[in-house]
Amino acid sequence: MNVERKWDEPRPVLLTVDDFVTLSEAGAFDELGKVELIEGTIVAMNAQYSRHSRAQRQLFLELHAACAALPGFEAFFELSLRIAPRSMPRPELSVVRDVGANAPAEPDQVALAVEIADTTARYDLGRKARLYAQAGVAEYWVVDLDSGMLHQMWSPGAEGYAERREVALGERVEAVTIDGLQVETSDI
Amino acid sequence: MVRRANACWAGHATGLLAFPPSCYVAAMNVQRPVAVEPFRVRLNVEQFQLLDRSGSFRDHAKTELLDGTIYAMNAQFRAHARAKGQLFRAFDKALAAAGSTLEVLSEVSVAMPPHGMPEPDLVVTSEAAGDGPVPVASIVVIVEVSDTTLDHDLGVKAAIYAAGEVSEYWVVDLKGRVLHQMWSPGADGYGERREVALGERVKAVTFDGLAVDTSDV
């Protein structure tokens, strides 16, 4: 980015998806829990408590049931998303079309990505939202357990998601960009 | 630990690419921190070497692993290379004059496991012979020559060498014509320091009899 700086100060090397896969296959992350490559930096999170896990499960069941009526759409837990060249996050839930038999999802295959925010709302609404929007993920939800709100974002672009609305948890939520996808959030 | 990891993450999120060294020190005591918030994963020496072998760094002239983060330098220009050569010869002479069997090496990788593999400009070591990187415990003095990298050398690098218990560290500031001499390493950096004008005869504090003439630098 900054050409002037390029030749001066040492700078951290940002890793690529290939580097990340090389390290992963060598077992580098075996001792860690969930590991993601976010804009060239490897980021881990190794603990998840019951409130978070329960919300994730409930919403998965809802998305899974909703996909049954939507041919071609599949709901996933923690499916890796390959955002070349330097990111490989693992959205907690996703609704995906046409993913390979044994492959990470590509951004244009992800119709909906969901993160459950227990303690990470700022991160999920900030950096993760930018990352998914820049990659072109069509719709993104953040379930903020602390505030009891589901943040729904769509119209991705270089600056982030252009459109958003908030729905109180407990209400029925309709996907904006997937016709016919509705979920109940009363159990979350 | 979780709180500390968060503070580090916040620093990262605000656009700083590297975390302050204080973040790493806290994490170092804990093998597998329990964190429900994202924390940066530090690479170890083996992982760094794996990426090196797989060609990940082929676009960079030089890479170092500093406390789990890989840093790259692209080019080295004349002022830096020349000063380093002059210092190398001055150290070589000073070691001979002191009757020492230690050797000075230039741009050699230093093993600082588990998360460090720097390549200092000069090291004075008792284990110059052998294969592989120089073990950090064999090093008496590390020298970095700063043309454009003074903040990095006095900051990130000083913290890492101190944490690795390198007994003495010199930073030669070519622009300021000053040599920063640091010793008494600890977890919080070097406890003691002084500045000497370049051009003088500089005595190592922690190694008796080593006096380096910097008049040519």
In words, what does this structure look like?
- Chain A has 188 residues and is an alpha+beta fold.
- Chain A contains 4 helices and 11 strands, in the order αβαββαβββαβββββ.
- In chain A, the strands form 3 sheets. In chain A, strands 4-5-6-7-8-9 form a 6-stranded mixed beta sheet. In chain A, strands 2-3 form a two-stranded antiparallel ribbon.
- The longest helix of chain A is centred in the first third of the chain and has 19 residues, at 50-68.
- The relative contact order of chain A is 0.13.
- Helix content of chain B is 29%, strand content 29%.
- Chain B contains 5 helices and 13 strands.
- The longest helix of chain B is centred in the middle third of the chain and has 20 residues, at 78-97.
- The chains are: A alpha+beta (188), B alpha+beta (217).
- The A-B interface holds A 6-13, 15-16, 18-19, 22-23, 26, 28-29, 31-32, 35-36, 38, 41-49, 52, 118-120, 123, 126-127 and B 9, 12-13, 17-18, 31-41, 43-44, 47, 50-51, 54, 56-57, 60, 63-64, 69-75, 148-149, 151-152.
- Strand 3 of chain A pairs antiparallel with strand 1 (39-40) of chain B, so a sheet runs across the interface.
List the helices and strands and how they pair.
The complex is a heterodimer of chains A (188) and B (217).
Chain A: H1 3-6, E1 11-12, H2 17-25, E2 34-38, E3 41-45, H3 50-68, E4 73-77, E5 93-97, E6 110-117, H4 121-135, E7 139-144, E8 149-157, E9 160-168, E10 172-174, E11 182-184
Parallel strand pairs in A: 6-7
Antiparallel strand pairs in A: 2-3, 4-5, 5-6, 7-8, 8-9, 10-11
Chain B: H1 2-13, H2 21-28, E1 39-40, H3 45-53, E2 62-66, E3 69-73, H4 78-97, E4 103-106, E5 110-111, E6 122-125, E7 134-135, E8 139-146, H5 150-163, E9 168-173, E10 178-186, E11 189-197, E12 201-203, E13 211-213
Parallel strand pairs in B: 5-7, 8-9
Antiparallel strand pairs in B: 2-3, 4-6, 6-8, 9-10, 10-11, 12-13
By DSSP (H or I, 4+ residues per run), the number of helices of chain A equals 4
Work out the radius of gyration of chain A: 17 Å
User: How many strand elements of chain B?
Assistant: 13
Element order of chain B: H for helix, E for strand: HHEHEEHEEEEEHEEEEE
Distance between the termini of chain A: 42 Å
